[in-house]
Write a structure and sequence with these properties.
The protein contains 4 helices and 6 strands; from the N terminus they run ααββαβαβββ. The protein is an alpha+beta fold and about 120 residues long. The chain has 2 domains: about 30 residues; about 80 residues, no CATH class.
């Protein structure tokens, strides 16, 4: 009986240590939570959308992301004039926390994506 009692106590101590080691080695998955809140610009186009002349501005828009948020005015000063004489649009396809989303604004409007992805 004494041997079984010591064995049970030893097993409980081992289990408790395993739990503690797990908590210390993987504290609340902080890295996963940071990655989950990341704004990634997948595609951005500016022009006569959807079927007219347009230009790919993905790199330019991606460079404007600050602290996982974006605020950019859709205008010819920022992106050139790919469709002279027509009202243009800026469309940004993005992921936030791995979820695909899209926003579109008219020329001279400001497209914003907050740090919550909206």
């Amino acid at each position: 009986m004494y041997r079984f009692k010591n064995l049970a106590i030893s097993m409980m101590l081992i289990a408790a240590c395993a739990v503690l080691i797990g908590l210390i080695a993987f504290p609340a998955h902080a890295e996963d939570q940071t990655a989950a809140k990341k704004l990634v610009i997948v595609k951005a186009v500016y022009g006569d959308l959807p079927d007219g002349d347009k230009t790919d501005v993905t790199e330019k828009v991606a460079a404007m992301v600050k602290d996982n948020a974006l605020s950019v005015e859709a205008n010819n000063d920022n992106f050139g004039d790919p469709a002279e004489g027509t009202v243009k649009k800026l469309q940004v396809n993005y992921t936030f926390g791995g979820v695909a989303k899209s926003k579109t604004v008219d020329e001279n409007e400001t497209l914003t994506i907050s740090s919550t992805g909206e």
